[in-house]
Write a structure and sequence with these properties.
- This protein is α+β, with helices and mostly antiparallel strands.
- The protein folds into three domains: 370 residues, Glycosidases (TIM Barrel); 104 residues, Immunoglobulin-like; 243 residues, Neuraminidase (6 Propeller).
- It contains 17 helices and 39 strands.
- A hairpin with a 6-residue loop joins β34 and β35.
- α8 packs parallel to α15 and α12 runs parallel beside α13.
- It is globular, with a radius of gyration of 29 Å.
- Belongs to the glycosyl hydrolase 29 family.
């Protein structure tokens, strides 16, 4: 009996241990380098609590003090950075970027001093830029000899930052790095060129010197020199990039990582190397944090600009969404981040900085929508902040010391707010109201902050942060919340009210729902536009950022420019026209796609040399044809991507010198302004917005044609009956106008630069 009892105990122990092992395996289960596995990622809670980070974009560019992308632009003949380089350092065939790096010392850089300042300002995570597109690493890189330990400052910049930030680890301050080097294999190819004119014509730049190929890289096998991600990065480059990322993770243990775009790399790799990197980051973090991933990975959704991955792939849920110098229009359920800067991305001597008020109000707005702000501050070449940047940070810090409780650890409310008001919550009993502008007559009325009929919000107190000793008069009724600000309170940047109560569950949501009814807002927007109505002798109309307007005459299909009330005939026959900041595109009668691009574009390649088929309009402008397609409708984005409806009715766009069709049939296409410009189409009489990997149906009925406002990205659509419908990111409205129209164009007024809507009467 004794032995049976012992066996029973052993069996129970084995079962117990087995359960424990199974539980442990469940906790430490590894991420696989696949979209499906990585979609189990959840943004770590520390990030959602932190809200505000400071980022240091600092490298050899700062030594020149003239701006970002110096390493590329100094090799572009005629560029302002090229001119600066020749005037101050010499010709790039003799004195190149390698010499800029070696001349840069950063002699006054003090990571501890900077980190102490950032913590004092209120940053909860501090991020260093480990490398940029210039292929120069700012750490003791094991896989790349051109690094800051071997060349330049002769210091491990990331190592010093890492040590300085970890000193504050017990205060919850987190450490992160960014890497931008995935682009280098194409971005940096400008160093392989030579001047076309002048005394150095034909003399190769120093990037052609094989002795420095480790920095300057070999010529791209595809001749790719775009500033976006490489179209098809060579295997050696993908492997080197991944090894350098892993080196950063292994030796500097970041809580945060960011690449400048989506998941690298397009082409034959199809982003697999990028997925390998992300899974490695998460698994390394789990290994170091008892089976929990504490690493935040941020990627951008620039796939909206080019869905096949030219800017990197974006897959919802595998990482945290990052948007550059922009904000979301409303609350996002999942955490997200805006990365922005106090001015230029790198130090520019006598450069302009944003105001503390603008930055603080942007932070408040982002946080109210469940986002974080990562704010870049770039030191001078010597490693110290200039006085303007230092004073700006101190001013932000002074506000944060008083009002930080309305930022850190807060959650979105039922709405982020409208106009001058922004709301967040903390726990069940506290709501913070931030007010941007001085209140008129010292009074604020918020109609949608109201209890349900017959109920109370149980408000126990309302105070102003930093002025708790001054009583705020308030009244809460079904008509809303009325506040009276005490006299002698200085309004600086934003005033924050702390509203405490016990029955906020009694909020009447009907007034809040009314905020999402876009009828009034869109009608107000439309009424405020500079509207021009043209007679029906035109079939199509378009305008650009410069106030230039084009139209197509119905009688003879002549493309004309409209200027000062007059027609300028261009001697071209067309059936559609589109324009944007990048240039103008028209569809010829034969279905050809023809472009006029006044300035060289950074983001899109077009045919050159013998492949460039050109013709001139009667005003002397040169137009070139994009071969290989016949189309019906066209438009162009701010960065130069051409979108068309081909002769089979398929939405297609032009990139990497080829046409790329999407699986979408449509009748019309339109492009908005902005860095990642909105693309929308009319399909089967309804409006569809392109969201990069899919189309979102925005509704509408019997729609026929559309255009997009340049600045606000309001879509103006016309039905087959000629009636106007308006759509934005938050809603839609059908206008009850008596007039009917057959085409619409959006642009800027040539006289005053205001937004304009042009309509052709039916």
């Amino acid at each position: 009996m004794k032995s049976l009892k012992s066996i029973s105990v052993l069996l129970l122990l084995a079962v117990f241990l087995g359960c424990k092992v199974e539980k442990k395996e469940e906790i430490v289960q590894k991420y696989e380098p696949s979209v499906e596995s990585l979609q189990s990622y959840e943004t770590p809670e520390w990030f959602n609590e932190a809200k505000f980070g400071i980022w240091v974009c600092w490298n050899a560019y700062a030594h020149t003090a003239v701006g970002d992308w110096y390493a590329r632009n100094m090799y572009i003949e005629g560029h302002k950075h090229y001119k600066h380089h020749v005037e101050n350092y010499g010709h790039p065939s003799e004195y190149g970027y390698k010499d800029i790096i070696q001349d840069w010392k950063g002699e006054e850089f003090n990571a501890e001093e900077l980190v102490d300042l950032f913590v004092d300002v209120g940053a909860k995570y501090i991020v260093g830029m480990a490398n940029h597109h210039d292929n120069y690493d700012l750490w003791d890189s094991k896989h790349h000899s051109w690094n800051s330990v071997n060349y330049g400052p002769k210091r491990d910049i990331m190592g010093e930052f890492h040590k300085a930030v970890r000193k504050y680890e017990n205060q919850g301050i987190r450490w992160g790095v960014t890497s931008h080097v995935e682009r280098a294999s194409c971005w940096f190819q400008t160093n392989k060129g030579a001047d076309k004119e002048g005394p150095y014509a034909g003399v190769p730049y120093d990037g052609n010197d094989k002795n420095y190929e480790t920095l300057y890289l070999p010529p791209d096998p595809n001749g790719d020199a775009k500033p976006t991600q490489p179209s098809n990065a060579p295997t050696y480059w993908r492997e080197n990039w991944l090894a350098r990322c892993k080196d950063l993770f292994d030796n500097y243990d970041p809580d945060f990582f960011y690449v400048d775009g989506g998941v690298p790399f397009p082409g034959e790799d199809k982003g697999q190397t990028g997925l390998d990197m992300i899974s490695y980051l998460y698994n390394q973090s789990k290994d170091r944090h008892n089976g929990e991933n504490e690493a935040v990975m941020c990627i951008k959704d620039w796939y909206k600009k080019a869905p096949y991955g030219e800017w990197g792939y974006y897959y919802e849920g595998i990482a945290t969404l990052n948007i550059e110098r922009a904000r979301l229009p409303q609350i996002r359920k999942q955490p997200w981040q805006t990365d922005t800067s106090i001015g230029d991305w790198t130090y520019v001597k006598d450069g302009d900085y944003r105001s503390a008020t603008e930055i603080i109000q942007e932070l408040i707005d982002i946080v109210s929508k469940n986002g974080n702000m990562l704010l870049n501050v770039s030191p001078m070449g010597n490693g110290k902040l200039d006085k303007k940047a230092y004073d700006l940070l101190k001013e932000i810090g002074a506000w944060m010391k008083i009002n930080g409780e309305s930022i850190y650890g807060t959650k979105p409310w039922l709405t982020s707010g409208v106009e001058q008001e922004r709301f967040v919550t903390k726990g069940d009993n506290t709501i913070y109201l931030s007010y941007f502008e001085p209140a008129k007559d010292g009074k604020i009325n918020i109609f949608y902050f109201a209890p349900q009929e017959g109920k109370s919000l149980g408000i126990t107190s309302i105070t102003i942060l930093g002025h708790e000793d001054k009583a705020v008069k308030w009244e809460s009724t079904t008509n809303g919340l009325s506040l009276e600000i005490p006299s002698n309170i200085e309004h600086k940047h934003a005033l924050v009210f702390k509203i405490e109560g016990s029955k906020f569950s009694n909020i009447d949501e009907k007034p809040i729902e009314k905020l999402f009814d876009r009828t009034d807002a869109l009608i107000e927007w439309f009424d405020a536009q500079n509207k021009s109505v043209f007679e029906n002798k035109y079939t199509s109309i378009s305008s650009d950022y410069r106030g230039n307007t084009w139209a197509i005459r119905a009688a003879d299909n002549e493309l004309v420019q409209l200027k000062n009330g007059k027609e300028i005939a261009l001697g071209l026959k067309a059936k559609d026209i589109g324009a944007n900041a990048a240039g103008t595109v028209y569809v010829g009668i034969d279905g050809s796609v023809n472009l006029h691009i006044p300035n060289k574009l950074e983001w899109v390649d077009f045919p050159e040399g013998d492949d460039r088929i050109t013709h001139k309009s009667t005003d002397g402008k040169e137009w070139f044809k994009l071969p290989g397609i016949k189309v019906e409708r066209c438009d162009i984005t701010q960065t130069g991507t051409v979108w068309v409806i081909d002769d089979k009715g398929t939405v297609t766009y032009y990139n990497d010198l080829v046409w790329k069709p999407l699986e979408k049939k449509a009748e019309d296409i339109a492009c908005g302004g902005g860095w990642v410009g909105l693309v929308a189409a009319v399909s089967n009489g309804q409006l569809e917005r392109f969201d990069g990997t899919h189309w979102t149906n925005l509704g509408g009925k019997n729609l026929k044609t559309l255009d997009i406002s340049i600045t606000e990205e309001v879509i103006v659509a016309l039905s087959t009956e000629g009636k106007v419908s308006l759509f934005d990111k938050m809603g839609t409205v059908n206008l009850n106008e008596s007039k009917s129209y057959k085409d619409v164009g959006c642009g800027l007024n040539q006289g005053n630069g205001d937004n304009t809507v042009m309509l052709i009467s039916k």
